[in-house]
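Chapter review: from sequence to fold.
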Amino acid sequence: MTTFKAIVIEKAENGTKTALVDFNEANLMDGDVTVRVEYSTVNYKDGLAVTGKAPVVRRFPMIAGIDFAGTVESSSHPDWKVGDKVILNGWGTGETHLGAYAGKSRVKGDWLVPLPKTMSSREAMAIGTAGYTAMLAVMALEGHGLTPSNGPIVVTGAAGGVGSVAIAILAKLGFTVHAVTGRTQEADYLKGLGAAEIVERKELAGPAKPLAKERWAGGVDSVGSTTLANMLSMTRYGGAVAACGLAGGMELPTSVAPFILRGVCLYGIDSVMCPISKRREAWKRLEKDLDRPKLAAMASEIPLSGVPEAAQRILEGQVRGRIVVKIG
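The token string follows.
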């Protein structure tokens, strides 16, 4: 009988309880590829699941963790063989399918993408779902036609995972990046990633005007709510915002004015069920368009046992950049 350590969420009388336990491999869910997990990460959604602050988990017991990088241990899928290095993001892992905070994971081969040749498993999870989502957001802005000549791009939640990677990517692509944060003490960190200007979060707080002064050609938003509403009202004519988070809330108290009077577009970024072709493109772009020294500067590492504490910190807005979880 093979067992390994796993972070397991159980249903409890007053919500959920989370513990590091020994898990039997025989209890893994169906799938045609078994992966020896080497690294995972702590994303905002992981924080919600592990702490029980939101109903992310849909079946119990559940191994938490929505993404991993590791090595194929066994496979009956035609695309994967023993020894292949792979990445998984989303597809319901850690929600409806046993997830990544474990020594092994059995999943559908159709969910996997190859680890880029020049990237280590650790680097892949320093990027993680937050960074992969940031890349999808940048691709949406590029697809809209935005270039550095159009003007500055604003990034909210700048010191977090999505924000940190988005700033680094956009800066390398030549964009002028304005970083919105409530943690002004992180100014040096954000400028080190490539931010040209630091914007205090309070400038995007409070009720949004239907139309405010035009400031940015586009933006990447991981906050939602009034922050996103204010971003939209401040986006220049013909601009675009890519929205991918809800740290500030799910509501969007805005009007149609930015859309019908300035031709602004709002792109929704879904990383969970994103088609595999776009995933592969995003990871190829991450290999090319994200500076590794900047990635190293934004990442810290914890053991599997440190996940519950890190989950609490990420919800409290106390995490800077990315947290890598060493599994194997």
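Two observations follow directly from the output. The longest helix spans residues 121-144. The first strand starts at residue 3 and ends at 12.
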